[in-house]
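Example 3.2
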Amino acid sequence: MDFFNYKNGRLHAEGVALETIADEVGTPFYVYSTATLTRHFNVFADALRGMNALVCYAVKANSNQAVIRTLAALGAGADVVSGGELARALKAGIKPHKIVFSGVGKTEAEITAALNAGIKQLNVESEPELERISAIAQRLGLIAAVALRVNPDVDAGTHEKITTGRKENKFGIEWTRAHEVYKKAAALPGIKAQGLAIHIGSQLLDLQPFREAFVRAGDLVAMLRADGLSIETLDLGGGLGIPYGDEGETDAPNPESYAQVVRETVGNLGLELILEPGRMITGNSGLLVTRTEYVKEGATKTFLIVDAGMNDLIRPTLYNAFHNIIPVIEPEKGQEPVNVDIVGPICETGDTFAKNRKLAPVQAGDLLAVRTAGAYGAVQASTYNTRPLVAEVMVNGDHFAIVRERVEVEDIIALDRLPDWLAD
């Protein structure tokens, strides 16, 4: 459920007409709904009732300060994967004791920043990283709370570029060596080995891979405890999928069903459970609004050429992802849909949002809304073709505010520096 609906024939974000925002902000722009963010976080958190669980929002899904601050006010923690995301989470008001730091390539500077901030734990992904954390903690005179990220060798059944739990993926400690490495962590100076972490992938539409991974994690907990090792936390990662509107898509499981799997597999272990939803919270909370520049009748098909490009939303190009696309002005009843390709202005054939899509007739100047664009949209945007970074807007009831200004061409060029031999 989201709060983007037609009212009097015009698509609204909560109480604000998207045309109103377009007139003030220009296009393309992202728009986020406070009501949708709030509802989705609360539905997920409520599903975990009765368990000792900390919900750490995966900042990589959407790192806008307004989004993080909204979730922080609801009690969310944060899962971060870079020093930049750590800084964003802290600045947005996430308490350090609710932050976990994941990722395979943490630098010395990032580890130092995390330890100085006093975050809840570092999720360790390799032995060299573990040894680096130990050395840095000793130098700082601090104790680093760590969880060992284990690769359970479970196929998530999702897109190959977003699966993370198979043995051939780069993430985590190999399942068969987890026991040995955890014992090593517990013995290292400057280290407090306090838990395990797993994350098998993103956009999972089947709960069975979760169940398999959680059972494996529970078995490992039992083995470690039998060896006299202490475990306080179990980070189950994220990955719960959402519907994107593709006709061939399996229905996404609801948070209650997901939480039931958690209860049945690891809910009785006496551990603090950490969960890292990202897409499930923000995906349906955002739209990308774009304006049609041209309607081009090609030799074999009709193209709608819009002012948004793959630099603004790369998911269709990168993952062959489906996004439902609808007109901002509600089509009249009885209008016969036409078959179109919706494409952007980038000089790449891959700059395509939709192929052979049935859509009510669209004219140049008409606004289109790309749905379910609140996750992995603006955060993956670039300035390819020297195109301004897209503006971001947040709506709360009848009010809206720009939460990230459009980065204009002059600002992009100003980042360049000429060497002495080319200067005037």
